[in-house]
Design goal:
Elements lengths: L2 H8 L13 H10 L9 E3 L29 E3 L10 H9 L4 E3 L5 E7 L5 E7 L2 E9 L3 H9 L5 E5 L2 E9 L2 E6 L5 E9 L3 H7 L3 E3 L2 H6 L11 H9 L21 H26 L2 H12 L5 H6 L5 H13 L7 H5 L3
Helix pairs in contact: 1-11, 2-9, 8-9, 8-11, 9-11
Keywords: Membrane, Transmembrane, Transmembrane helix
Length: about 350
């Protein structure tokens, strides 16, 4: 998630306020969430929890609430599996879309990963007070980035194996290796922390290009790889009201992501669909549908996935601010770019 996108989302944030509707809000929200399924779903009361989900790392939290009310009186659907997992062939194909680089030297750990559903992605490694970020970009953007780096320093030839590139020096401890376009994309490796040029050069031979299965196998267990996306999405959707005619399959298209980024992607898609439903209902004069959309957007303050993200970044706060405005009919013109709506 880019800083620019988050900046647009959180600009001019207002404190969240939700009026007490004497239970009518919960009744309507349950109506939204009780869409027909092939198998009936049992309901259960949720109480505040502080445990992490085993697969996604998402933290369980309180049930839906209104100010001044006991949260235990609000019912929500129990978790259920409705999205089928993709085939192994699709899982491997998703990883094969990108050149895959891993640091093989002992002591280096993957701390964050995002993307790899197309020609872009980020993976972060750390070892003590040193870190390395590898970013993939579409090949068409190479010339622009290369010209930009020429303003940093003169390029110095280097490579990862047989993949050539150029090192640019930002400072005595900050270096970037920009690899030349290959297979429709290029990659840039950027240091962070306490580095020397000698240390940087010494690590480069320990960075290897691996096949898709090895790349996926190297991911930490909490990372949502394509084979885990269905289960991770279903855990999130357990207390998130889905918009009418929402295509669950779109939640399997995000590539490989840490839990924070996966949660942001899922809630962005849900937010886009609810705002679109609000706009449709408003144009049609459909008051019932309009009320459902408003309540669904306001309920986002209590979605477990967003509450679990508060301490990690600004996505939840930015989403809530945008959702509140949309529920009030003050939909920002750039909401689609803010949420990354397709």
């Amino acid at each position: 998630m880019t800083d620019d996108r988050l900046d647009r989302m959180i600009r001019g944030a207002d404190p969240y306020r939700l009026a007490d509707l004497d239970g009518a809000d919960q009744e309507l929200l349950e109506e939204i969430m009780s869409t027909p399924d092939a198998l009936p779903r049992r309901r259960r009361f949720l109480v505040p929890l502080a445990t992490a989900a085993a697969v996604t790392g998402i933290v369980g939290a309180a049930a839906l609430f209104a100010p001044g009310r006991d949260t235990t009186q609000y019912a929500a659907p129990a978790p259920y599996i409705s999205i089928a997992a993709p085939s192994e062939a699709l899982v491997v194909k998703a990883a094969e879309e990108n050149p895959r680089l891993l640091i093989t030297e002992l002591g280096w750990k993957i701390t964050s990963v995002y993307g790899f559903a197309g020609a872009s992605g980020d993976i972060f490694f750390a070892n003590g007070d040193r870190s390395m970020n590898i970013t993939w970009y579409p090949a068409r953007e190479y010339d622009g980035y290369y010209r930009d780096r020429l303003a940093v320093s003169a390029p110095q030839a280097s490579a990862i194996g047989d993949w050539p590139g150029d090192v640019f020096t930002y400072s005595d401890s900050d270096f970037a290796l920009m690899l030349r376009p290959r297979d429709g994309m290029f990659a840039e490796l950027r240091t962070g922390g306490t580095w020397t040029r000698a240390g940087f050069d010494a690590l480069l031979p320990r960075i290897e290009r691996v096949d898709a299965k090895a790349f996926l196998a190297a991911m930490p267990p909490e990372v949502v790889t394509p084979d885990k996306a269905a289960e991770a999405a279903n855990r999130i959707l357990a207390d998130v009201p889905k918009p009418p005619d929402f295509d669950d399959g779109t939640l399997l298209t995000f590539g490989t992501n840490d839990p924070y980024q996966f949660g942001a992607q899922v809630t962005a898609r849900i937010g886009c669909a609810w705002i679109a439903e609000y706009q449709r209902a408003d144009r049609a004069g459909d008051e019932a549908a309009l009320s459902k959309a408003q309540l669904a957007l306001r309920s986002s303050h209590n979605w477990k996935v967003l509450k679990s993200m508060v301490d990690e970044g600004d996505w939840a706060e930015g989403f809530w601010e945008l959702a509140d405005k949309a529920a009030e009919g003050r939909i920002p013109q750039d909401y689609r770019s803010s949420l990354g709506c397709d």
